[in-house]
Amino acid sequence: MRRGFWLLCAVLVLCYLAAAEAWRLFPPEPAALEAAVAQAAAIAAARADRLARGIPINPETDRNLTGLIGDEYTGLTSTLGNLGAKRSAATPEAAALLVRLLREAGMTSGSRVAVNASGSFPGFALAAIAACGALEAEAVIVLSLGSSTWGANRPDFTMADIVLAAMGRNAAGTDSAGRGAFPPGYSANMAAVTPGGSDDRGLDLDRELLEAALTRVAASGVPVMRPASLQESVSLRMALFRSNGEPDLLLTIGGNYASTGANPELALLSGLIKASPSINTGDTGLVQEFLRAGKPVVQVLNVESLFARYGMPFDPYPLRPVGTGRVYRDRRLPAVLLLALAAAALVAYGIAGRKGGKSQGRV
Question: Are 114 and 251 in contact (CB under 8 A)?
Fold first, then answer.
């Protein structure tokens, strides 16, 4: 009898796992789908702005013609980067991924998200606005212009230019300015831009090109911050993030100097990070500040492993239609289905026990 019961439990577990894997049976999560649609529109707006400025798109490096892929090396290049990771970020699915990560971190309508992004992943910067908007969360954004290879490292089309174009604010005065790609009601405040690069002062960047780009940012009305040290870089950002209330989460994108400071262990983590005894939070950095306060952090780095964790294709070509990937669906089954399976097990066990009792009575 006991053997039959455990066999029944095993069968039900296998049924559960099979149903959980059959994610196509479940419709896309509305917020993930909405974020992806907004991300696609933002990419299109940035691409249109780039072409309006007369900046060509290289189809060999930017296979999906997003306009978000930079050059291998320019005067704004700070470190080496992975081309496939940049192309993966420049997809609608990147916004759906951030919705998943923000939900896992507990973000809901009304949450305040502090967004700190280097120029390395312009696709994820747009995705942050799309994901926060779809979740009805408020995004407070600080960008830096330094970028790894293939990121937003073009001096004539920096991270700030890309985000401003998607938001409908454009200092270049091209025809694509002013429309904005994000739906009305999305709350995103581009609070400041910093030089980025070494020490967040651009010490390793071309000074003339950097100053020209920062001047263009200032002309758009976005404040330019010039921190003198890591401590000041962190404190200035924290002041901006707290300007209208305490932030609930840090979303940090790329290897910005202020994110983890000089802590190489934290710089290797990717995805949702929560405080634990194994993480050293004593150093100076935004990640450490949030973890010390008991607040979650979502760090977007090591994109290939992050995509693999959520069943997403790395460096996709061509792009899949919006809403068709696993990342759009919460593969956890509803609690009611789990209860139904448990009830079925108990009923089956009771029936089997009753039959067993009757059989013993006949002997």
Answer: yes
Helix (H, G, I), strand (E, B) or coil at 256: coil
Q: Quickly state the pLDDT bin for 254 (edges 50, 70, 90).
A: very high
Calpha distance 142→117 (Å, rounded): 6
Q: Where are the alpha helices (DSSP H) in the chain?
A: 2-21, 30-52, 83-89, 92-104, 122-134, 159-167, 207-219, 230-241, 257-260, 264-267, 286-292, 303-309, 335-362
Mean predicted confidence (pLDDT) in 9-15: 67
pLDDT digits (tens, 9 = 90+) for 256-307: 889 998 888 888 899 999 988 888 888 889 999 999 999 999 999 999 999 9
Q: What are phi and psi of 77, to 5 degrees?
A: -85, 125
Mean pLDDT of the 48-76 span: 97
C-alpha 26/C-alpha 283 separation (Å) is 43
User: Which one-letter amino acid corresponds to residue 256?
Assistant: N
Could you say which DSSP state residue 24 is in? G
pLDDT for the residue numbered 261: 85
Please tell me what DSSP assigns to residue 244: T
Instruction: Please enumerate, as own/partner, the contacts of 214-222 that have beta carbons within 8 Å and a separation of 24 or more.
Output: 214/145, 216/158, 216/160, 216/161, 216/171, 216/172, 217/145, 217/158, 217/160, 217/171, 217/193, 219/171, 220/160, 220/164, 220/169, 220/170, 220/171, 221/169, 222/160, 222/164, 222/190, 222/192, 222/193
Structure-token pair, residue 229 = 């040290």
- Tell how strand 138-144 and strand 153-154 pair up: unpaired
Does the bond joining 155 to the residue before it have cis omega, within 30 degrees of 0? no
User: pTM for the whole thing?
Assistant: 0.85
